[in-house]
Design brief:
globular, 61% helix, mainly alpha
Length: 141
């Protein structure tokens, strides 16, 4: 029994250590983005992402459209998308909603899907169509 408990404790300690490393890695990645050539504009976007409860999805989408994503490297884009996904997931979980709520093919796009399309240079076909965001508000595409 002691051996089994010892193995469980070791596994738990290993998992905690890995989680700390993972969080440190993402913190360093975010800090590198903020220190990079696009740090000023992406810093403002990350500030908006951090404060989702005070931002309308259409504001977030509008600001994302303002950024020249073609000039930004892929890793920086992926770090930014990770931060957005993490923030929306936390926002939804705080409100007892499903953490991930992407639209099905026949539904309007959610805010994360719209921004992912903008960031990866795949703009929505109809820029005037409204869609519901993943955190419950309407987004102008």
């Amino acid at each position: 029994m002691k051996h089994s408990q010892s193995e469980k404790d070791k596994k738990l300690a290993d998992n905690e250590r890995l989680l700390r490393w993972w969080k440190k890695f993402h913190r360093e990645e975010r800090d590198a983005v903020l220190a990079g050539p696009h740090g000023a504009v992406l810093g403002e976007l990350l500030r908006m992402i951090k404060n989702l409860e005070h931002i309308w999805p259409s504001q977030l989408v509008g600001f994302a459209r303002f950024i020249d994503w073609a000039a930004i490297d892929t890793n920086t884009k992926l770090v930014t998308l990770h931060e957005l996904n993490d923030a929306i997931t936390r926002f939804r979980e705080k409100r007892d909603q499903e953490p991930i709520d992407d639209a099905l093919p026949d539904e309007p796009l959610r805010v994360f899907q719209v921004i992912r399309g903008i960031v990866m240079n795949q703009f929505p076909a109809d820029a005037g169509e409204a869609s519901r965001s993943s955190f419950g508000k309407t987004v102008e595409k």
